[in-house]
Design goal:
The protein is of the alpha+beta class and 295 residues long. The protein is built from 7 helices and 19 strands. Strands 1, 2, 3, 4, 5, 6, 7, 8, 11, 12, 14 and 17 form a 12-stranded mixed sheet that branches. The chain has a 5-stranded mixed sheet with strand order 9-19-18-15-16, with no helix packed on it.
Length: 295
C-alpha cells in the first residue's frame, strides 16, 4: 500500500494510491481516523483494503498538493555518520570524524519537513545547501522501552525516501548540529509512504541521489553502520517511539561539501532521491521568499 498526505480545500487529507489515482481515505474514514497518524495507530490499513477494491479514486496523484508523508510527527530522529564512506569524506573535509560506537542521533522539527514535488528552500542567510539521500522510517505502534533488535522491524509501519537537505555552515556553528538541520522546508520526503508489508527486508535496498540528472550518491542500505534494528533498539533505551514518529537513517558518501570544489544546491536545480521498492522523490530548489520576518 502507498499512502500520501495532501492539502485539499485548505485542510490536511490522506489517501491511498491506486494506479495514478488517489482514494481519499480521510473523506471516508475521517470520523474514525481523523488524521494519518490515527490511521496508522489503529490498524486503518486493514479497514482500507475493502475501500481500495471498491473505489476507482478521487484525485489524480499528479495534481495533488502533497505534504510530508507524516505532516505533524511527534518526534523525528536522524542518524548522523551512518555510512563509512560518509564518515571518511567528512573526516577528510573537516577532520575529527570517526564512526560512532552508537548511532549519532539528532532531531528535526515538523516545520523543517516538506513533500514530493515541493521546493526545497535555500535561506537568505546561507547558500551552503547540501543534499543527503536517506531512507525514512515511519513507526507504526508504541514501542515501550528496550525494544530488542530482533523485534524492531515489527514496530515499523512503512518507509519513504528522504532528502535531508541541510545548511553546512549553520551545522558547524557549534558542537550542536541542529541549527543546520532544521531550516524550514528542507527535509523533503515522499513520493509516498510504502507500507512495511511491501518491503520485508529494508536492509538490502539500493539508494541513489541525483542532482540535475547526475548521480551524486549511490549505496545500498546494507552498508549502514548502525542498522534500522540497532537504531530502534538504541533509541528505545532512553525514550519510547509512538505511531507516526520518524527515523531518518543517515546518508552515504557523495555529499556536496566534501567535494573539491564543494557543490551546493542552488535555485533551479532538481534533486532526486530514488530507493529500490519505494520510488523517486523529486524536488526543485528555490530561494526562500523575501518577505519572511517578524509580523
Amino acid at each position: 500500500m502507498k499512502l500520501v498526505s495532501f492539502l485539499h480545500a485548505g485542510k490536511h487529507h490522506y489517501g491511498v494510491l491506486k494506479g495514478d489515482k488517489v482514494i481519499d481515505l480521510s473523506a471516508r474514514l475521517g470520523g474514525t481516523y481523523p488524521d494519518i497518524i490515527s490511521f496508522i495507530a489503529n490498524d486503518g490499513q486493514a479497514v482500507a483494503q475493502s475501500i481500495i477494491q471498491e473505489s476507482v479514486g478521487d484525485f489524480d496523484y499528479a495534481s495533488l498538493d502533497l505534504l510530508s508523508v507524516i505532516p505533524n510527527p511527534g518526534k523525528t530522529f536522524c542518524v548522523g555518520l551512518n555510512y563509512h564512506d560518509h564518515v571518511d569524506e567528512a573526516n577528510r573535509a573537516i577532520g575529527n570524524r570517526k564512526a560512532p560506537d552508537r548511532a549519532m542521533i539528532f532531531a528535526r522539527w515538523p516545520e523543517s519537513l516538506t513533500g514530493h514535488k515541493k521546493p526545497i528552500l535555500r535561506p537568505k542567510v546561507s547558500h551552503m545547501l547540501d543534499w543527503e539521500a536517506e531512507m525514512l522510517v515511519v513507526i507504526g505502534k508504541p514501542t515501550g522501552r528496550y525494544v530488542p533488535k530482533e523485534k524492531a522491524l515489527s514496530y515499523i509501519f512503512g518507509y519513504a525516501c528522504l532528502n535531508e537537505a541541510c545548511l553546512r555552515d549553520y551545522q558547524r556553528h557549534s558542537s550542536q548540529i541542529n541549527p543546520g538541520k532544521n531550516f524550514e522546508k528542507t527535509g523533503a520526503n515522499g513520493p509516498w509512504l510504502v507500507t512495511a508489508d511491501e518491503i520485508p527486508d529494508p536492509m538490502n535496498l539500493n539508494i541513489e541521489m541525483r542532482l540535475n540528472g547526475q548521480v551524486m550518491q549511490k549505496a545500498n542500505t546494507s552498508q549502514m553502520i548502525h542498522s534500522i534494528e540497532a537504531t530502534i533498539e538504541y533509541i528505545t533505551e532512553w525514550t519510547t517511539l509512538q505511531p507516526g514518529d520518524l527515523i531518518a537513517t543517515g546518508t552515504m558518501g557523495g555529499v556536496g561539501f566534501a567535494r573539491t570544489p564543494p557543490i551546493f544546491m542552488k535555485p533551479g536545480d532538481i534533486a532526486e532521491v530514488e530507493i529500490e521498492k519505494i520510488g523517486i522523490l523529486s524536488n526543485h530548489i528555490e530561494d526562500e521568499p523575501t518577505n519572511l520576518g517578524p509580523l
